[in-house]
Amino acid sequence: MSGVVLVTGAAGALGGVVCDTLTAAGLTIAALDLPSPHLDQLVASGRAAFALGLDVTDLGALRDAVRTIETNLGPITGAALIAGGFVYTGPLHLAEDDGAAAMFHMNVDTVSRGLRALLPGMVSRGGGSVVIIGARPGQRPWTGVGMASYTASKAAALALVQATAAEVLESGVRVNAVLPSTIDTPRNRQDMPQADPRRWVSPESIAGVIQFLLSDAARDISGALVPVYARA
Asked: What class does CATH assign to 4-228?
């Protein structure tokens, strides 16, 4: 594989593995996340070719980042929009407005603004592939009991994926989403000590699906919501 791929949330547990997997496949990675030593280390260790620290919910900053990346590395041919988040809000009737708003800011604005920053260039060039990280409750809301705000935010993100995929299909640009169940990360192991992580999805498995969706082998796939549940 070849091309330039932008990865948001690159300094996180999943993002780092995605950078590793795509770099190993021959892609040139531009890593975006909030400023941190972890982000800087991606470049220092050769896991990414370029890194920028910024708030990926800031559309202006994202557009500037896209211009900077393309000036330094060339046209962005693909993207993995991994940035998102979770705040426990409890059942909807007990949730506060700020928690629900935070979920939509982290999980919908990151997708919407990422797409708005990336798609004009891809559409004008007549090609590109974007993969968004969703979540199982976004497609199966009944699995999101006790976290209705999070579930709704992920469902909204998936609606954006499919509507946008239809909008840019004739331009040769593809937009898809990967829907994990519980991901086996150190944070999830810490937060759920009684669970069996052997049933969870590995970051490497998700990264492999992202690599496939970015590849030419998936050239006929757009608007797909790909479940990656393992045994969780």
From this structure: alpha beta
